[in-house]
């Protein structure tokens, strides 16, 4: 009797749950689902969607669909024209940019050269606080737009010739200018984006109007999603799918669960926690492709402990890179033995030479001869999943060099940088780099020149600076690459940082899509992707 | 009663300013370099730095600067302006979007706690030391012992991915069904507590004098339990659930993250992670109000449920 009544009590809630389950599964699958014509792609909440203010991956993924770049990059990562008809210069200083006829903005406006000039001036004008501001610094007149109360609102180097042609005069010759034009800072913005000349409408960012293969469907639904649909008047290569939903996730693990359940179509980054199970979970829907990220260990070259190149070389030789990429990263990253990423024109293998080869006996000898410190500290930021490989590296240093080595954690990368900038002794510290456009200069300039924007380690070699400068002022690409390569050779000698790993896109997709490709900038190719029938 | 509520309201004003001041101070004291945090690992341009510094008064440093910024904030707050997050979004808008889904989730969690927790608690209380009582004891201890950070992904993996009974994530505009699994996960903790509370209370009341009187009058057991015991036993449970509702409204950082529900906890977590001081302070200020109000409601409810309690 007692048992039976108990059963009745538990049966009721169970029946309620089951009843709900039954009606739920008949519905749309819960979270808006994806019927065959909508392809969903994971992103994080973008910070901004104005082309001149977008530098992170999620934002640039969305605007890569809404806009069409002047140039894109081919399989060898050389630039070719897309929205541009031609980008030419006789002296690498005055560049003539002709845009293709037939491009229209999604509101029907014809794309003219003035749209480019307006957008670029907006980006370069310092009081607008745009993130991509420094990308315009090579254009003549850029300096006049800087500071709290700039002298001018327009760069003197930009001149309209006719509706489809304009010239960009640089302050000094720059061979790679055409390559930089693929970056999203150089997208045009329509007249409808501005409420007055140089003043962007607040509403523009909520529904950016571009000239690309997709147009906004509704507005940016913060923390939720961004819907786009095919723009039929787009004159370039037509996308295969009609609708794309960029679905916003805060945690990659949640998105990963959705891909497994076919609830999300593309996950551009597999979360680290799932790297070991992903190949078996996803089968042939688990993919990898090259990208540009470069992880390295930097040394405060001003600190006497690490000022000798031999100490840095010895530390480099004591690290077994292959072991770490295999055991910690499960093959999702590859060992780096050069100072620029393999995807670049001009990349050579093993430019760091012997110094990046694992050789514990030689390392120990060299370290002792050079009088390296008795304790090596490696600082890293605790919020980026770096603990595992730093621990592994530290253990290798302990074993192979016979010194004490510890990892030291800072809460955030910003905290680490603040300490480095104040020259607080933090020991060696990790850094990473992702390119903005595929040129060697994009690595060499900011990272190792004396005034480089990310040279936090105080490395300075006048010879190196000169070669990079000569490279960017070269007459031809080949000549430029030769100079850059000479500069890279100097790095191999001085070893201001030690290369550790190159990244890869490690991504997965649902069984509902095919032809999923990712580019060097961690973006899904929106034109190629197709619904699987 | 009226005087009591009035006095409590006045206390709330003080409590509100006290807590916001502390939260504001903590958020900005613990902050490293919010502008660098915003940019992630790329270098911050001088233009961007100057722009943000001016916009958020980050150049006002030291004690004087802190109070300048705090009073500026409070002034805007009193005008109903919660300010802008570091990414330039209006915090009022963010909350307006985040709130409805969090409230729905909280109500589901609460309903789960009431339906299952109170029912099972009454049963366990009536049949002390039975198999049912002992098994619920073990189960609730288990649930209380497993943190949400383990429970939520496990539930998601098994019920969402493996057996596909529920959608694995809820998304921004979820159906009731999609919110059910996160609701159950979130409610399980309150469920366990509500169950233990109800059981103890029922068991105690069953031994009370008035129950013995009712029984000797010849009332049927069902009537004794439902009308007399249950009503009296629910006082502590209602108190608990009232406070719990305030808790749940503040958003469940872990649950909302795991199930991708863009509610209050989701935004709070992002604010903390990206060192978005204005966003964190904005959300917490509103949460302070939610807590104060829900506490007041619970205190007033005491008097309504138990006429012996009077506030003067």
From TrEMBL, chain A:
Gene3D superfamilies: Dipeptide-binding Protein, Domain 1, Dipeptide-binding Protein, Domain 3, Periplasmic binding protein-like II. It holds the Pfam family SBP_bac_5. Residues 1-21 form the signal peptide. PROSITE patterns: PROKAR_LIPOPROTEIN. It comes from the Bacteria. The keyword Repeat does not apply. InterPro entries: Peptide/Ni-bd, SBP_5, SBP_5_dom. Residues 82-454 form the Solute-binding protein family domain. CDD domains: PBP2_NikA_DppA_OppA_like. Keywords: Signal. This is ABC transporter substrate-binding protein. It comes from Micromonospora trifolii.
Automatic annotation (TrEMBL), chain B:
Belongs to the binding-protein-dependent transport system permease family. Keywords: Cell membrane, Membrane, Transmembrane, Transmembrane helix, Transport. Its main location: membrane. The keyword Transcription regulation does not apply. Residues 99-302 form the ABC transmembrane type-1 domain. The keyword Membrane applies. It is found in: Cell membrane. It holds the Pfam family BPD_transp_1. It is a multi-pass membrane protein. The chain crosses the membrane at residues 12-30, 105-126, 138-159, 179-197, 224-243, 249-269, 281-305. It comes from the Bacteria. This is ABC transporter permease.
